[in-house]
Predict the structure.
Amino acid sequence: MKYYYAFGIVIGCNLELPLPEYPGEEKDCLEIRLLEKSVEVPDGFVLRNSFLIEGNGDDDMGSYYERGDEKWVRYQAVCDFWIRPLEQKMDCYYRVPENLELAEIYLLSDCISAYLRHVKQYVFHAAAVRLGNKSYVFSAEKGGGKSTLLASLVNSGGDVISDDLVPLFLAEQGVMLRSSFPSVKLNSGQFPLATDWISDARPVLKGSLKKSCTLKSERYAEGDFPLDAFFVIHPVTADEPIQVRKLNAAEGFVALLQCIFSGTTASNSEIIAYQKVIRRILKENLAFQLDIPRDLEQLPNVIDVLKHFDNGKEESKNG
């Protein structure tokens, strides 16, 4: 068993994972087993959802089942996951050796998100950056400029809290976000912009133009941070102005609900818990739309825009 640390928890696995290693052993950990084996859905599991998976090789159909607190997620062409949160165990059964690489991607995205909901971390499809003493979350549709903005902010002095999966949770002091692990995903065009703050890179999948890049420790902000703003990115053309607009309760609720990561494997009670987090974000006036160009070379000084946003926020509070 190898031990790793991510999302504020210790993870033990029988195979190597692309995560930071945890020194020593830890009995109180999430235990993951990756096993080459074809299985059927066990008796007692009830089908709750079916969905189409795109973007990781061939299109794949997925199915989500529940049995009490247990979850079973089937990726028809690749693997099955049996998630037992009360036992802190997760088994992945991949069909053939060639499926292992893709099974690990599902493990560290959809399935780890499903487990984290049990420990009251609610994962959003977004990036999070620490800029000065502020913590910002940025979400966008695929190709909407999230990774480009992330690279721009890091090159301007920001530190990465999390990329792609951002866990949020509620605490006495408000909405908090938690670091995931020191890695970012960049496409081939963005990769040259990151050479000063990454230590290595490998394709997300064999032949993929997108690379999974390990952050240098000094550019990774690890820990829990208060949420200062949740931005939903709205791409605009290069000749349009960058601007920030506060989202009202109705549009903010819809926009943030669409940012939930892997809602297809969430129970009804977990969706309600997500909605509770979203309502708290809206109640604290932390949800905004950010109009910004995708092209990094044409981005104005994003830091100044965010400073202006901060001043406006403080003025609105004082007013």
